[in-house]
Design brief:
With 96 residues, this protein is mainly α. Helix content is 34%, strand content 4%. It has 4 helices and 2 strands; from the N terminus they run ααααββ. Strands 1-2 form a two-stranded antiparallel sheet. The longest helix is centred in the middle third of the chain and has 12 residues.
């Protein structure tokens, strides 16, 4: 085996220490690659929490049953702009 960075990487993969797809740049960066136990507990609590602040505050309505047409650009990564039409009635039946 060559004494290069690639050789060391291949050895660690062959030994089962790393997966072939490990992000070595992330490992070198010093950023944490695992969550702390306290962070995992908080995430489990949040997952069990069924409290919906939007519903309590009345600031949003669930419109998932309506047909919505997105108006985001074709290159967007965050599809969050849309338009829907709801017929409320005409003035003669009080729907105004």
């Amino acid at each position: 085996r060559k004494r290069t960075a690639q050789g060391a990487f291949d050895l660690l993969v062959d030994m089962g220490v790393w997966d072939r797809h490990v992000d070595t740049a992330l490992l070198r960066s010093g950023f944490p690659v695992r969550f702390l136990e306290s962070e995992l507990e908080i995430s489990k609590e949040a997952e069990r929490n069924e409290h919906d602040p939007d519903a309590v505050l009345g600031i949003r309505r669930d419109l998932r049953e309506q047909k919505v047409y997105t108006v985001d650009s074709a290159s967007t990564l965050d599809i969050d702009d849309g338009i829907a039409v709801e017929v409320l009635g005409d003035k003669s039946d009080g729907g105004g």
